[in-house]
Specification:
Blueprint lengths: L1 H15 L3 H7 L7 E6 L6 H5 L6 E6 L13 H12 L4 E7 L3 H7 L8 H6 L4 H10 L5 H20 L3 H8 L4 E7 L6 E5 L4 E4 L7
Parallel strand pairs: 1-2, 1-3, 3-4
Antiparallel strand pairs: 4-5, 5-6
Helix pairs in contact: 4-9, 7-8
Length: about 210
């Protein structure tokens, strides 16, 4: 805790004090253009990865970057998505998985979650991912199989995202774009799903004209 408290004081002294106008303006409201849905994993930092500042990303995090399909029963994920799309009018939603995801390891090996009943229940939202991987990637093992599960999970959550009414309407009216990303922790690379060739490709800096 002492490290965190020291960090708070450094933040207030070195950053807030030097950018007082910026932080004062944040108090008047937010207008992010992007919602970023990712895992709770401590190794994943959306603002660091995208080099964005406070106010630029509306972030939703949970174990496994899971988006339950829409139901009439309220939950935190549905409420955040509705607020981002219908309230804040975000233009893009990114669902970003990551390498070495513990939640997806649990999806592939349910016995590993026997002492984590809440987690085991939560990853049942990924049952379709487990079935897809067992059906289509049975030839893979270890990290390669996990990577396939991580990618399939991001695509499955994009599918679930489309069941949310606010998202469905905004996508249909071309007010909202959905993006499937996977972040590779060890290299910092980010891969995006390309619907044209049904593959994840590294996001590269555009070549200047």
């Amino acid at each position: 805790m002492q490290k965190l408290i020291t960090g708070l004081h450094d933040f207030q002294k070195d950053i807030v004090a030097s950018q007082q106008e910026f932080f004062a303006n944040l108090a008047h409201g937010q207008s992010p253009e992007t919602m970023f849905i990712t895992c709770s994993d401590s190794r994943v930092n959306p603002n660091l990865i995208t080099q964005t500042h406070p106010g630029e990303l509306f972030i939703l995090r949970n174990a496994g970057n899971i988006i339950p399909a829409y139901t009439h029963i309220a939950n935190a994920e549905a409420a955040a998505i509705e607020f981002a799309v219908a309230g804040l009018k975000v233009k893009d939603i990114i669902v970003c998985g990551h390498s070495h995801c513990g939640a997806l390891k649990g999806v592939l090996d349910p016995d590993s979650l026997k002492d984590l009943p809440m987690m085991a229940s939560w990853v049942h939202h990924c049952e379709v991912v487990r079935r897809i991987v067992n059906e289509n990637y049975s030839h893979l093992e270890g990290e390669r199989k996990l990577q396939a599960a991580i990618q399939e999970n991001v695509l499955a959550q994009i599918g679930n995202l489309r069941t949310h009414p606010a998202v469905a309407v905004a996508v249909k009216n071309n007010r909202l774009r959905l993006h499937a990303w996977v972040y590779k922790i060890e290299t910092g690379q980010v891969f995006a799903f390309n619907a044209h060739d049904s593959q994840f490709s590294e996001i590269l800096q555009p070549v200047p004209a």
